[in-house]
Design brief:
Chain lengths: 156, 677
């Protein structure tokens, strides 16, 4: 009586283990392939200016919206602006409604693709909800361009 | 004065929690019933003190006491009363007090209603609960005192973040926290069981209602948050796979797995160590969720108020709680005895399948959410992981699970006949295939996936109904028999049927809106007419108005269907001068099958001047405005389905078995762990 029960328990454990391994294996395979295709890298405007950035691959860029650069294309919902890390600036086009906190001089992160003409076509524009807070990507871009002062919430 | 009382109550609560976390443990170890009995009054006192502190904080907000820094930073005298109250937890400090309040409430509930719990288990559970209380109360008292004074007091406050001044978000954090903190009770039970070295059917039965309550609240909290994002962010989406969303979704997934594995532990005395592990993970992920949201380590569309110094403290709590509990698990779990056996094809097997997939899915979400953080911490590139990643990993994992949901409950315990179960489900199968064909031919021939998604949803929904019909022998027995069977059906069964049907509704909503959403972004002048998914929109221009603490630009659309006026939609942009922030108020017209969703953007050729946003700049009637209109088919079903799932959870919670007649423990000699097995 004791032996078959133990053996049955072993079989069951093996079954559960195989099932779990199968699940985890599938997940790992899915994750790895997805990482390959869908990992979105972050670049600063200086990276773009130095041609260190692949064209037509999905990426994020971040920085400040350059003062006086926002213009609307007449008769269409397209908006043009420039994102700067105070060293270099990248022209960006975006079609749609900008987030409520989008302002000139404020931090912004754009998700999209860089065109061969050097213009970044944003599919999504993110601005922070809290205007005293700098998106970490923007802080990073300003740090890399050497224009960041520690403790300064809003470098002007 | 009121603020000092609140602060004092918090410090006292911390002291009580300290005593609560030590004395009952000592008592349980020595078998000293007086020390064990200390847990109950301590838990009640801790709750009362935190409630007092929370009351004081709420009072300070309601009367706009601007000598309190927290009120200054997050409130304004002109704010509506609802948002003065919700402002109490709409900020970091207050939300932590709310966390502790709910923690205290759950502790008090266990103390008050856990009469049928064995004294040792009860004392240890409350002691672990006390330890969690110590961690969070110390966090509040030492790093995030909500009662800090400011001198000289300003004449008015800085206002609550206007995005949070919204009924959906006012009640979102409390439900979310009831979910998170509810898992702390399950965690405390698991720790107590590990200390005792004993897990049995009775233990699983005590744990189930708490898991159900936590999971239901978390479901409601997530649904509220998603609904808020849908109508407040103005992007027409309902889920963004954003880190903050994922933070609440991971404990939900593990909680759902726990809900199911606890059934096996209760009914069949199997999967016990796994259930314990899930209890630990559910709470650990709740803590990770708090950490992600509160430390602001990840870029998020939802994140507000960040302070890395506090993140370190939460990280310390996290490491202590997760590391400690997993070490405890590694040490004690091998001593727990295995239980009932079962065949691969059986109810238990189906629930194991459910658990494996839900746990794996939670793991993929975890990797996608935290990978950017790890990479950055290791000095790697700054990356982000967006919706495409989750669509490519999470969604394929869910499909086999959703297919199995309808079959699982048809299988018997121990060993079952899969072919027979599927045979009994053939009605649901036929309906699903009809739905696939209908969706493909009539709705949209471009998308096979949409049709398959619809079929999957129908399979879930009708599978749940068929299972219920089988139980009450509908159409097989006379109506009287059916009636009495339905009346005698345990509430837990009703709950399962309702929750699974709700899941079907959610899947249908997701499939519908994902495949068939229509988006129109364009500029419009007064009088312009355009077509969106068969509706004619006529733009009637933008007018200005004033709200209690904001300025309004309000656009008006007349919507015609078959040349008849169908609706007038008035989306708004609001500017809150005190906070210097604006919000988008979408206009949504629903007929429960689909939503029309309209927002307005900025006027053409107008720029912001100083602090004043572009949409308040002077314009003429000829000015063109950017407008964004969506037609979102079936999207209301996502929230309808989520609420149905919550209803299922609540119905199951009212099952008599959860309250009375908890099984007496088997004689200890049978279940006491034998260290060498």
């Amino acid at each position: 009586m004791k032996l078959p029960r133990a053996r049955q328990a072993k079989r069951r454990r093996l079954m559960v283990l195989l099932l779990a391994a199968l699940g985890l294996g599938t997940a790992a395979a899915l994750t790895l392939t997805a990482f390959d295709d869908h990992l979105v890298f972050f670049h600063t405007p200086s990276d773009v200016a130095a041609h260190k950035v692949p064209v037509d691959r999905q990426m994020r860029i971040g920085g400040l919206v350059e003062e006086g650069s926002v213009e609307r294309v007449a008769g269409s919902p397209v908006i043009r602006f420039r994102v700067t890390d105070l060293e270099h600036a990248v022209p960006v086009t975006y079609q749609g409604v900008l987030p409520d906190l989008f302002r000139e001089g404020q931090g912004v992160v754009a998700n999209g693709r860089l065109g061969a003409d050097g213009t970044f076509r944003a599919a999504e524009v993110l601005a922070k909800h809290d205007e005293n807070y700098m998106p970490s990507e923007v802080a990073e871009a300003l740090k890399r361009s050497g224009r960041w002062q520690e403790g300064a919430a809003k470098p002007k | 004065m009121i603020a000092e009382i609140g602060h004092f109550a918090l410090v006292l609560a911390l002291c009580v929690a300290l005593a609560q976390s030590v004395l009952p443990l000592v008592g349980a170890a020595r078998g000293d019933s007086a020390l064990m009995a200390f847990a109950k009054p301590a838990a009640l006192a801790q709750f009362a003190l935190v409630a007092l502190a929370f009351g004081c904080l709420t009072y300070s907000f309601v009367v706009s006491d601007f000598t309190v820094r927290n009120v200054v930073m997050n409130s304004h005298s002109a704010k509506p009363l609802l948002y003065k109250v919700s402002g109490t937890w709409g900020n970091h400090e207050g939300s932590m007090v709310l966390w502790s309040l709910i923690l205290g409430l759950f502790g008090a509930l266990v103390a008050g209603f856990g009469r049928n719990l064995p004294p040792g288990l009860k004392a240890r559970t409350l002691a672990v609960q006390g330890m969690i209380g110590v961690a969070f109360l110390a966090f509040i008292v030492f790093t995030s005192n909500p009662f800090e004074r400011v001198f000289p007091p300003p004449t008015d406050g800085r206002d609550l973040n206007p995005l949070l001044q919204d009924p959906g978000l006012a009640f979102h954090p409390p439900f979310l926290y009831v979910g998170y903190v509810g898992f702390s009770i399950v965690f405390a039970f698991a720790m107590a069981a590990l200390i005792e070295g004993r897990v049995d059917a009775a233990w699983a039965r005590w744990v189930r209602p708490w898991t159900l309550a936590a999971w239901s609240a978390l479901t409601l909290g997530i649904a509220l948050g998603s609904w808020w994002a849908y109508y407040e962010l103005g992007w027409g989406g309902w889920w963004y796979w954003d880190p903050v969303e994922n933070a609440s979704f991971m404990p939900w997934l593990v909680g759902a797995a726990l809900l199911h594995s606890a059934i096996v532990a209760e009914k069949r005395d199997a999967l016990k160590t796994w259930t314990i592990l899930l209890s630990i993970l559910a709470f650990a992920l709740s803590l990770v969720g708090t950490f992600l949201v509160r430390s602001g380590v990840l870029t998020s569309v939802h994140a507000f108020a960040v302070d890395p110094a506090r993140g370190i403290f939460i990280l310390a709590i996290l490491v202590a709680a997760i590391g400690g509990s997993l070490a405890m698990y590694a040490w004690r779990a091998p001593m727990l005895k295995g239980g009932g056996l079962f065949q691969p094809v059986s109810r238990e097997g189906a629930l194991v399948f459910n658990n494996v997939i839900l746990a794996t899915a939670a793991a993929t979400v975890f990797i996608g959410t935290l990978y950017p953080l790890f990479l950055e911490a290791l000095g790697g590139a700054k990356v982000s992981v967006g919706p495409p990643f989750f669509n490519a990993t999470f969604v394929p994992l869910m499909i086999p699970l959703l297919l199995a949901v309808s079959a699982g409950p048809m299988l018997g315990w121990k060993r079952a006949d899969l072919a027979g179960a599927l045979q009994r489900l053939r009605a649901a199968m036929v309906v699903s295939l009809v739905v696939v064909a209908a969706a493909y031919w009539f709705a949209d021939r471009r998308s096979v996936y949409a049709a398959l998604g619809m079929g999957l949803a129908a399979w879930l929904f009708f599978g749940a109904l068929v299972e219920w019909a089988e139980r009450v022998r509908l159409f097989r027995a006379p109506m009287g028999t059916v009636w009495s069977r339905a009346a005698n059906l345990p509430r837990a069964s009703w709950g399962m049927t309702i929750a699974h049907a709700g899941l079907g509704l959610v899947v249908m909503g997701i499939a519908g809106v994902t495949a068939w959403q229509t988006e129109v972004i364009r500029v419009a002048r007064t009088g312009d007419a355009f077509d969106v998914a068969g509706y004619k929109f006529v733009f009637k221009g933008v007018t200005r108005d004033e709200g209690p603490n904001y300025h309004i630009a309000r656009g008006t659309f007349e919507v015609y269907r078959n040349e008849k006026l169908y609706a007038v939609m008035a989306p708004e942009r609001r500017f809150f001068p005190v906070a210097g922030m604006s919000t988008t108020e979408t206009a949504i017209r629903t007929n429960l099958l689909a939503d029309l969703y309209a927002t307005i953007g900025d006027p053409e050729s107008a720029a912001q001047t100083g602090n004043i946003p572009a949409f308040l700049a002077p314009v003429t009637p000829q000015t063109a405005w950017t407008v964004r209109i969506y037609h979102n088919p079936l999207v209301p079903w996502i929230w309808l389905g989520a609420c149905t799932m919550v209803l299922g959870g609540l119905v199951s919670l009212t099952d008599r078995r959860h309250r009375v007649g908890a099984p007496a423990r088997v004689r200890p000699t049978d279940t006491v762990a034998s260290p060498a097995e």
